Amino acid sequence: MATALITGASSGIGLALARVFAADGIDVILSARSEDKLHALAKEVREKYRVKARVIAADLSLPGEAQKIYDRVVEQVDYLVNNAGFGVYGGFAETDWMAEAAMLQVNIVALTQLTKLFLPGMIARGRGKILNVASTAAFQPGPMMAVYFATKAYVLSFSEAIARELKGTGVSITALCPGATETGFQRAAGATGSRVFDSRTLPTGADVAAYSYKALQRQKRVAIHGAINKMLAFGVRLLPRRAVVAITKTLISRSE
Ligand SMILES: NC(=O)c1ccc[n+]([C@@H]2O[C@H](COP(=O)([O-])OP(=O)(O)OC[C@H]3O[C@@H](n4cnc5c(N)ncnc54)[C@H](OP(=O)(O)O)[C@@H]3O)[C@@H](O)[C@H]2O)c1
């Protein structure tokens, strides 16, 4: 029986991913801050899919929490899903530093440290899969969410580099790049009203999770969800960078 450790499993894409893993008979270890939601999900997947599910509550904005998660995991982790993350919306001169520092810790430091902690065991066993949740934000700078976009560029760059290092080890790493998705993200980021979220019907966390799971199993290095997102990620390579940043600002800004 395989086991998946999933961070940010209390809502959105992470919660949907936990259901997808469990539906495929994989035991889950669920982590996030919202312990009640995690226990409700653990109960749900235990009853519905007959898998083992347990909860490790952790606040990944605090240094040391990634290590604490690792220390509490006694199971052999076959899948590591670094999904916990959030954004902060607003012009950089006005945004709150404490929120941004926490975001850097969650989106970058904790993801990197969890990868470092779990990877050697996977390599020693000659098998394992890591899913690092980046974003289509990784492909260009994002005015009004400058730090968030930069954190996702980091996740993509880091994951692609490690993927090459892991060639031939039996361990794979996939950078997942969802576009705007209907989850708690928009509200948590304070991005309500932003054109990129409000201008169309968005895919759900379940849509993204189903796609991600297949991409992870196929050992894709970079998995971009949705045909339009794939086109846009390719398109930014062709346009002048200055034009890309200007268009991105228009998309992220609130409509008047
Ligand atoms: N939704 C989008 O449009 C979109 C697009 C591209 C990429 N993404 C990425 O997808 C991932 C999942 O986000 P989502 O869209 O599913 O949003 P969400 O519904 O807000 O879920 C975010 C998850 O991260 C957890 N989290 C946030 N801060 C945390 C902390 N300090 N410590 C531990 N866990 C924390 C949350 O749990 P608690 O609050 O319970 O701690 C929650 O489970 C993120 O990395 C996000 O950047 C989202």
Number of domains: 1
CATH architecture: 3-Layer(aba) Sandwich
Determine the CATH topology: Rossmann fold
What's the story with the biggest beta sheet? 7 strands, parallel
Rg over CA atoms, rounded to whole Å, is 18 Å
The CATH superfamily bears the name NAD(P)-binding Rossmann-like Domain
Which overall shape is indicated by the principal axes computed on the Cα atoms?
globular
Strand line-up across the major sheet: 3-2-1-4-5-6-7
Oligomer: single chain
- Model regions low in confidence, pLDDT < 50 over at least 5 residues: none
Strand content: 5-15%
Distance from first to last alpha carbon: 53 Å
Order of helices and strands: EHEHEHEHEHEHHHEHH
Helix content: 40-55%
Which molecules are bound besides the chains?
NADP nicotinamide-adenine-dinucleotide phosphate
Mean pLDDT comes to 97
Q: Could you characterize what this model shows?
A:
This protein has 256 residues and is an alpha/beta fold. It has a single domain (3-252), classed as Rossmann fold, CATH 3.40.50. Helices cover 50% and strands 14% of the residues. It is built from 10 helices and 7 strands. A 7-stranded parallel sheet has the order 3-2-1-4-5-6-7, sandwiched between helices. Helix 1 packs parallel to helix 2 (35-49), helix 3 runs parallel beside helix 4 (97-125) and helix 4 runs parallel beside helix 5 (146-165). The longest helix is centred in the middle third of the chain and has 29 residues, at 97-125. The chain is globular, with a radius of gyration of 18 Å. The structure holds NADP nicotinamide-adenine-dinucleotide phosphate.
